[in-house]
Design a protein that fits this description.
The protein contains 13 helices and 22 strands. The protein has about 475 residues and is of the alpha/beta class. It folds into 3 domains: about 300 residues, no CATH class; about 90 residues, Rossmann fold (3-Layer(aba) Sandwich); about 60 residues, Dna Ligase, domain 1 (2-Layer Sandwich), CATH 3.30.1490. This is Circularly permuted ATP-grasp type 2 domain-containing protein.
């Protein structure tokens, strides 16, 4: 047996090791194969996997830079019962969010206070809304697990949604490539013997869901609009386009024909649906006619202006009330307690407890414009406070949650051992709305892009030093 060295250093409950330091039973097949592999071969496998991912990148013609993403290859394993609870909770949330947007387009905003909407940088009251019968076709939910009294095979977990990402969420392409390397390189036996739900076909299913936004349905021409080779996710853009049978284009490849339709100039094809993987400011600056083209129904922009208001973290705080108001149900999973600095009494509380809280820009993404008070120096806290005081309505605050940790696995070939370090981990889960007309039909991809934070940090975003990890959802 190869030594497994693990020392818990963080307050969050670890999902891989129990309180007594022994591996949880659900990870038995993973540890068995890890031990058979050994540290020296594992180190070789790290190079092999990276090489295979680079080969795919080069096959797409991407020669500059490394777009393969930092990864920890020790998987996260989720029991079927835990996943079922997560899945039901996210289906409920997406149904409520789509109903909120449908009513917002109709001029009704019964749940979210007007001051929240009017102060959102993601909502422009002067822009006409055209969301379509199903306003958002995909949402990525960032979820964390916290210890509870609930009994379960991996411990007693409750789940808390930190935020929603309807626009440009990283996830499915990266999930499929992590799974492929698991099968081919790291855990072929464990994946063969465990009843892990497959990710096969889900990228194509995403394409079907996106095309459903067009009256042409399956015959619609879908374009993945990318910011180009400089984007760290440019490889993912190629994967999306290939797997979904879509056109890959930059804004410079798009123009409008004499009838006002959007055209991909290199191929001459009219575009019916845009799946934008490019910053909104650039998209509409480079294609100023696009908004009218969308509003008038000649093209469907999936993340249409104002639909992305659901990404506003101040709006996200009201999803539980959307569930109660629109569905007549109680939320199945929790939302992190949130204070909006657009509301005067809540702003007063936040400023009095500033250094104790997590303070975020409402429209920020990728771990940017976030301050985790308990992890910052006094100087950093005061610097961020001054930024917030300059535009307080743009910020929200949440309590810091010591959510569950997973592990980062490093081989120590010299000592013939594996060093496992605990690291805070979240779930990036993707829900799809595939029905052309019915927003209550929701599917959840049976896997997650788990993200693990840099040592000692809570921010798990890749752009902030985190790593990706495959998530194995068990069928039973």
């Amino acid at each position: 047996m190869k030594p497994i060295v693990f020392e818990s250093t963080l307050p969050g409950t670890n999902e891989v090791f129990g309180p007594d330091g022994s591996p949880r039973p659900i990870y038995g097949p993973v540890f068995d194969e890890l031990e058979r592999t050994g540290p020296a071969r594992w180190k070789e496998n790290l190079g092999r996997a990276h090489g295979l991912l680079l080969e795919e990148q080069h096959a797409f013609g991407i020669r500059e830079g490394d777009k393969t993403h930092p990864t920890d290859w020790f998987p996260r394993v989720v029991p079927a019962a835990d996943w079922e609870r997560l899945e039901r909770g996210l289906v409920q949330r997406m149904r409520a969010i789509n109903e909120f947007l449908r009513r917002l387009q109709a001029g009704k905003d019964e749940v979210v206070p007007r001051e929240i909407l009017e102060s959102s940088i993601l909502y422009d009251t002067s822009t006409p809304n055209r969301f379509g019968p199903v306003p958002v076709r995909q949402i990525a939910f960032d979820v964390v697990a916290v210890e509870s009294t609930r009994a379960g095979q991996t411990g007693g977990w409750e789940y808390v949604v930190l935020e929603e990402n309807a626009k440009m969420p990283v996830g499915l392409a990266a999930m499929t490539r992590r799974r492929r390397m698991g099968h081919e390189v790291f855990f072929p036996e464990a994946l063969k013997n465990l009843p892990v739900r497959s990710l096969s076909g889900w990228l194509a299913r995403l394409g079907d869901s996106l095309r459903a936004a067009s009256p042409k349905g399956p015959e619609a021409t879908l374009a993945v609009v990318s910011s180009g080779p400089a984007d760290q996710f440019y490889l993912d853009h190629h994967i999306y386009a290939q797997e979904m049978g879509a056109v890959l284009a930059e804004t410079k490849h798009l123009a409008f024909d004499g009838d006002g339709y959007l055209v991909h100039e290199p191929s001459g094809r009219r575009i019916d649906v845009i799946y934008e993987r490019v910053d909104e400011d650039k998209l509409y600056a480079d294609l100023p006619e696009l908004l009218n083209c969308h509003v008038e129904g000649r093209v469907h922009v999936l993340f249409a202006p104002n639909s992305e208001v659901v990404d506003d973290k101040g709006v996200g705080a009201f999803v539980p009330e959307m569930i109660r108001t629109y569905l007549g149900e109680e939320p199945l999973i929790e939302t992190a307690e949130t204070w909006s600095l657009a509301v005067p009494e809540e702003r007063e509380y936040v400023m009095e407890h500033f250094g104790e809280l997590v303070v975020k820009s409402r429209g920020g993404y990728g771990g940017k414009e976030v301050m985790i008070g308990p992890e910052e120096s006094k100087e950093s806290i005061e610097k961020f406070r001054r930024v917030v005081e300059g535009n307080p309505v743009e910020y929200i605050a949440q309590r810091m949650i010591d959510f569950s940790t997973h592990v980062i696995c490093e081989p120590d070939a010299e000592n013939d051992a594996f060093d496992l370090t605990d690291s805070f981990a979240d779930y990036r889960m993707l829900a799809l709305a595939p029905d052309p007309e019915d927003p209550s039909v929701v599917e959840v991809v049976p896997g997650s892009l788990t993200r693990v934070a840099a040592p000692g940090k809570h921010i798990v975003n890749i752009s902030s030093g985190g790593k990706m990890k495959d998530t194995w959802v068990l069928e039973r």
